[in-house]
Design goal:
With about 525 residues, the protein is mostly helical. The chain contains 18 helices and two strands. The chain has a two-stranded antiparallel sheet. The protein is globular and about 60 Å long.
């Protein structure tokens, strides 16, 4: 058996934990979907999450974490744990204070942020907007907790420790499930002879679950800080060259993340003007697409960033190029057939899992299919952005994100009148696909030895066509094999079989990442 590389081992571990995370996420969404359906109340909950999520993403999530890891890895290599924890403490203190200040501001101006014509949900009724304001303010508590937890994840990953950071989202899911099962419903659920209590908090219960999950997300990572002998200092030195470097990288990254988050805000702004359920259909479609995106793209990209940062520090451009090339080849080849198989076989899974009526199920299906058009684009953006941050280059991802936002708005305005919510999802897919292509072109131009991708593209398309045809035949001409759900699962499983033959080379490369 071929020896499995370190990055592959980490990627496989992350894939397993992320799969568990997504499995729990499916369970959570099933519970919420069956309780609330595509209702106005659930639209409010989903819309109220956006701005708190944006604050987290801008400060301690994608913005600071990706800008933080390359610098912290360098300090850890050159100055050891003492210097690394000193930097970590300063950045954590700063992030917490900034998040707290912004949370207070958002809480104070929550009403116009929701109801204005350029706000989050101008199309909601006054009652929906009032509920959105209340839920948004509660969500800011979780955002404050995440301002610490997100940085802890980055610090542990810089120490090449990935287990606890990958376990944290699972605990977050469990907290949300607790909110959905115990806190939200009017009547407690029954499992056999066990009658669960219920607190009847409705969508407020969902938010309380988010806060509880955020606490678990932070606490599960504390043993990692203890293992690596974390030492906290009550200090912020804005003249520290390492702090300056992190902030220099973070500035463009924050603008990049702002552009990404504005896509979600614009998405809900537009969808709130459509039929009831449009916001939730987009939320479900995005969430379903994110299952394969996370398992395929995020796992590899997360494991790759610290290693790429090391190669840059050592100026080992041969290994740098080889890792990127292998990762992109694998992602192109396996993402294409998976996207098509899912698009063909999802309807029975949506109908049975969520218990929606036929009309709502079709709305979620079409929206999800539109998002799946951009699955490859999304996974390649994960690799492309991290490649530039490994080189401590934040400008290219910045301009790419701004371009994506502009393209999303243009495509949405063009497609939404004709396609409703799926038009907004398709606009997202087209914008991200263009961003992925642009990043790859720029990366390729920066390398002396160019990326070789033609073979993987050809095999990926061949696998996509073959697997898609098999899944389509099963879904349309083998209804006699059993229930709809069984037919869909059969299409998913058998549809994947050609991948193991057509993509043998890429699957072997997966072992050598």
């Amino acid at each position: 058996m071929k020896k499995i590389s370190k990055i592959t081992r980490i990627s496989l571990m992350l894939a397993i934990l992320f799969t568990i995370d997504k499995g729990l996420g499916i369970l959570r969404q099933l519970i919420i979907g069956r309780q609330f359906g595509l209702s106005a109340e659930l639209d409010v909950f989903n819309a109220a999450n956006n701005l708190p999520d944006m604050l987290f993403a801008l400060i301690s999530g994608g913005a600071l974490a990706i800008a933080f890891i390359p610098v912290l890895s360098s300090v850890l290599t050159k100055e050891g744990k003492r210097g690394a924890w000193k930097l970590f403490s300063q950045i954590t203190n700063l992030a917490f204070l900034v998040t707290a200040a912004l949370s207070i501001v958002v809480a104070l101006v929550a009403k116009p942020l929701i109801s204005s014509q350029i706000g989050i949900a101008p199309g909601f009724t006054e009652q929906q907007q009032a509920l959105s304001v209340s839920l948004m303010r509660l969500n800011l508590v979780a955002t404050l907790i995440f301002s610490l937890s997100g940085l802890v994840m980055g610090a542990l990953q810089a120490n090449q420790h990935f287990f606890l950071p990958a376990l944290a989202p699972i605990l977050y899911d469990l907290g949300q499930i607790f909110g959905a099962v115990i806190l939200a419903p009017e009547k407690g659920m029954r499992f056999g002879s066990i009658q669960l209590p219920a607190f009847g908090q409705g969508v407020y219960g969902l938010v309380y679950g988010v806060i509880f999950g955020a606490m678990l997300h932070l606490l599960i990572q504390v043993p990692g800080l203890i293992k690596y002998k974390f030492q906290w200092t009550l200090k912020i030195d804005l003249k520290d060259p390492h702090v300056i470097k992190v902030l220099d990288l973070m500035g463009p990254r924050m603008i990049s993340m702002l552009a990404i988050q504005l896509i979600f805000l614009a998405q809900d702004n537009l969808a709130s003007r459509l039929q009831v359920g449009a916001v939730s259909a987009l939320t479900y479609g995005w969430w379903i697409m994110q299952v394969p995106e996370t398992i395929i793209g995020t796992t590899i990209a997360t494991a790759l960033l610290p290693t790429l940062s090391e190669y840059v520090a050592k100026q080992d451009w041969t290994a740098f190029k080889a890792r990127i090339e292998n990762a992109v080849q694998v992602l192109i080849a396996i993402t294409l057939p998976i996207a098509v198989i899912l698009a063909i076989s999802l309807l029975p899974l949506i109908e049975i899992a969520f218990g929606f009526n036929a009309n709502d199920s079709m709305k979620v299906l079409f929206t999800t299919q539109a998002y799946l058009v951009g699955l490859l684009g999304h996974v390649l953006v994960e690799i492309g952005v991290r490649t530039f941050y490994a080189k401590q280059n934040a400008r290219v991802p910045l301009f790419a994100s701004l371009m994506t936002f502009v393209l999303f708005i243009m495509f949405s305005l063009l497609l939404m009148p004709h396609m409703d919510a799926p038009g907004i999802a398709l606009a997202n897919s087209l914008a991200y696909s263009i961003q992925a292509l642009s990043l790859l072109v720029i990366i390729n131009k920066s390398l002396e030895d160019k990326l070789f991708l033609k073979g993987s593209i050809f095999r990926g398309v061949a696998a996509m066509l073959t697997s898609g045809l098999i899944a389509w035949l099963i879904m349309n001409y083998l209804p006699f094999v059993g229930t709809k759900i069984f037919t869909a699962l059969l299409a998913l499983i058998i549809g994947l079989v050609p991948m193991f033959f057509i993509l043998k080379r890429e699957l072997l490369q997966l072992l050598k990442l």
